[in-house]
Amino acid sequence: MSWSMREQEVFNEITTWRNELGSFRGHDLSMTFSRWVDGSFKSLPAAIKEEVFTKLDATLFHLHSIIQGTHLHKDAVERLVSTAKAFEENVSVLHDFTQLRIDQLHYMAIQQSGRHKFYSFIQGGVAGTGGIVAFGTDLLAMTILNIRAIQFVATAYGRDVQTPYEMTLSLKLFHAATLPIRYQAEAWDELIQSLETQDLGYFFNGNDELTNERWLEGPVKQLFKSTAISLFRKKKLSNLPLLSMSIGAFSNYQLTRRVTDFAEKFYQYRFLCDKNRI
After folding, report:
1. Which residues contact 78 (CB under 8 A, 6 or more apart)?
2. What residue numbers bound the domain in which 167 lies?
3. Which of 103, 173, 174, 265 reaches 20 to 30 Å from 188, CA-CA?
4. What is the C-alpha separation between 99 and 112, in angstroms, rounded?
């Protein structure tokens, strides 16, 4: 089935975005920081590193399973199906979303991503107040929010993240979207390659590794953000630490924006490739 003019336009936008990712090299400070992180982990024994990454991978899988098992997730899926039915009355299940136009799918996706960007903004602002619970759980909360955001973007494009293949793919996508930008082009290509080599089975056939030394640079940066918050939280205006709240809010917002943009481009690309095969 051939693409419409609008679908070709979306494909061209994704291609341009991918080329820009590939040309990104980062600045000197980020490269120095990256070398420091790499050096710190390379000095650890291989057995310890393997155990750390295995436990991190298992934690991400468990978080994904917990999120998709909640009533909030099920309610969100039902709302998306209802919205899709308003566009096309023959829609009754997620698989039927293939009947919709790409702009209709984009509309449903930006509703989900916009909601999660707002949640991240609020979470960062609360963490910036210096409250012990919010401050201490900010990294976990952001991990959950961004995994959840990807799940809902995937669902908006008709993907059932409760199947083993879609679950693993969405977590691989989370890994790619939270990498430092200079590594994302390579991660994108690996994701696209996994789509092309998948035999449409029930399970994910490729490498299901989710964390590595490169990925840890992101969580370490989150810890540095927490340090900045702790330094400025005593500087108050109208009895509120506005500077530390702003640091937390905008940092979290930008992270979720980057994650949801990456995720939607991936599912748009997948939608277009599937339509092209048909």
Report:
1. none
2. 28-68+102-277
3. 103
4. 20
What is the total count of domains within the chain? 1
Are 102 and 10 in contact by the 8 Å Cβ rule? The answer is yes
Q: Is the dihedral of CA 144, 146, 147, 151 positive or negative?
A: positive
Rounded to whole angstroms, how far apart are CA atoms 38 and 217? 8
In a domain, 107, yes or no: yes
Buried b (16+ CB within 10 A) or exposed e, 204-225: beeeeebbebbbbbbeebbeeb
Cβ neighbors of 239 (< 8 A, separation 6 or more) are none
User: Residue 3 class from Cβ within 10 Å (0-12 exposed, 13-18 middle, 19+ buried)?
Assistant: middle
In the chain, the amino acid numbered 8 is Q
Residue 33 lies in a domain: yes
Structure-token match 């978080």, residue found: 63
By the 8 A CB rule, do 158 and 129 touch? no
Q: Is the pTM of this model over 0.85?
A: yes
Q: Length of the chain, please?
A: 278
- The phi and psi torsions of 240 (rounded to 5 degrees) equal -125, 140
- Whether residue 231 is contained in a domain is answered as yes
Q: What is the mean pLDDT of residues 148-159?
A: 94
244: which 2 tokens?
Answer: 């530390």
SS3 276: helix
Tens digits of residue pLDDT in 69-118: 777 778 888 999 999 999 999 999 998 998 999 999 999 999 999 999 99
68: amino acid identity, one letter: Q
Max CA separation in the chain (angstroms): 61
CB within 8 A of 188, min separation 6: which ones?
A: 18, 21, 176, 262, 266
Identify residue 276 by its one-letter amino acid code.
Answer: N
Question: Angle CA(39)–CA(212)–CA(255) in degrees, nearest 5?
Answer: 100
**What single-letter amino acid sits at 212?**
N
Q: Is residue 92 part of a domain?
A: no
